[in-house]
Amino acid sequence: MAQFQFLDILLSLFGIGNDKELLYNTFEKWVNASLPAELPAGVEAFCFNLYDDGEGKWSVELVGAASFDKENGDWACDEVFSTREHPLRWESGKSWQEVQAQVKALLSEYLRKGKHAALLRSRQGLALGFVDGDLELL
Predict the structure, then answer these.
(1) How many alpha carbons lie under 13 Å from residue 7 in its C-beta half-sphere?
(2) pLDDT 10s digits, 2-36
(3) Residue 41: which residues within 8 A CB-CB, separation 6 or more?
């Protein structure tokens, strides 16, 4: 638990998280800080889970899953690791559809030029979606 508190403090010192609007620079820093230097064994796919925290507040977590099934989104529940203890949070007046589109655009940009883009693309699957909704495969 202390490790996650330390990470939260470190992320806030670098200005990562709790933004009013989500910008690429913030998203990039969070993804870079969220991926472990060495992935746990068995990570077959990644999922970016979106949350509507209410009152215009949103968050996203990254999950590494031990399985992937293109036909069944439940694979994302087969977690090997997650950033649940230190999600990226921001505020926005956008609808959930606009938030998902915004995060997809940021993630697509990260996959083109981000530090860990090759790692994210190297697994069987990569998805984005709200935890209570359908996953969008990227």
Answers:
(1) 18
(2) 444 455 444 444 444 444 678 999 999 999 999 87
(3) 80
pLDDT tens per residue, range 28-69 = 999 999 987 788 889 999 999 999 999 999 999 999 999 999
Q: Which residues of 46-55 are buried (b: 16+ CB within 10 A; e: fewer)?
A: bbbbbbbeee
Provide the domain limits for residue 94: 2-137
Total domains in the chain come to 1
At residue 125, what is the residue type?
G
CA distance 48 to 136: 10
Give the DSSP per-residue string, 73-117. GGGGGSEEEE-TTS-EEEE--S-HHHHHHHHHHHHHHHHHH-TTH
